[in-house]
Amino acid sequence: MVPRSARANRAKATILVVDDSPAMLRYLRLILEIDSYQVETVSSGADALLRIRQGCSPAVVLLDLEMPGMDGLKTLQCLLEVQPALNVIMCSGVDDPGQVRRATLLGAKAYLTKPVRRLYLSAAVQRCLGSIAMESAETSSHGSAIASSPAPPARYNSN
Fold first, then answer.
1. Which of 134, 133, 110, 132 is nearest to 122 (CA)?
2. The model's pTM
3. 97-103-108 Cα angle (round to 5)
4. Three-state SS at 133
5. What separation, in Å, do the N-terminal and C-terminal C-alpha atoms of the chain show?
6. At a CB cut-off of 8 Å and minimum separation 6, what does 113 contact?
7. Sign of torsion, CA 59 80 127 145?
8. ∠ at Cα 154 (111, 74), nearest 5°?
9. Is the pLDDT of residue 151 over 50?
């Protein structure tokens, strides 16, 4: 177990959680904060897009698929137009292979089904943060980013 003081000194990645359910926002915040992440929350795709345009630069965005107004797929597309390197994890109560495929084609790095389990969420976030660390290492060691084919998105099914 890591001492509390060591966890407090560790650099914390920021995760933006986008979900229209206040209960789900509280639940995901709790899980992520237990894992020592800084968490920001918004309740709509439009609010997420506004937050990114205003300069919020999260390491990972956890994005609900089914929301009123701008749904998760449209939000994903808009977020990546503004910030193409953004790591987005889709989250949905529906385990639909078609939706997973569409999210993947649009640029999602992972797809979680609700109810979200802490282990799967932690693994998906770590995978995204690992890709950031690898890109940073490749850029600093070679002077420019190395182009490589992206790993297939992870799919974490809680059912």
1. 110
2. 0.79
3. 125
4. helix
5. 29
6. 91, 92, 93, 94, 95, 156, 157, 158, 159
7. negative
8. 35
9. no
Contact between residue 79 and residue 87 where contact means Cβ atoms under 8 Å apart: no
Q: Which of 122, 40, 115, 56 is nearest to 89 (CA)?
A: 122
* Percent of the chain whose pLDDT exceeds 70: 75
Domain definitions of the chain by residue range: 4-156
Residue type, 50: L
Task: Report which of 29, 21, 13 is spatially closest to residue 93, judged by C-alpha positions.
Answer: 21
Cα separation, 104 vs 117, in Å, equals: 21
**Residue 31 and residue 37: Cα distance in Å, rounded?**
9
Residue with tokens 């190395």: 146
Token readout for 84 is 């193409």
List pLDDT tens digits, range 16-35.
Answer: 999 999 999 999 999 999 99
Q: Is 41 helix (H, G, I), strand (E, B) or coil?
A: strand
Rounded Cα–Cα distance for residues 10 and 63 (Å): 25
Residue with tokens 């994005």: 63
Length of the chain equals 159
Band of residue 36 on the pLDDT scale cut at 50, 70, 90: very high
Q: Which fold has domain 4-156?
A: Rossmann fold (3.40.50)
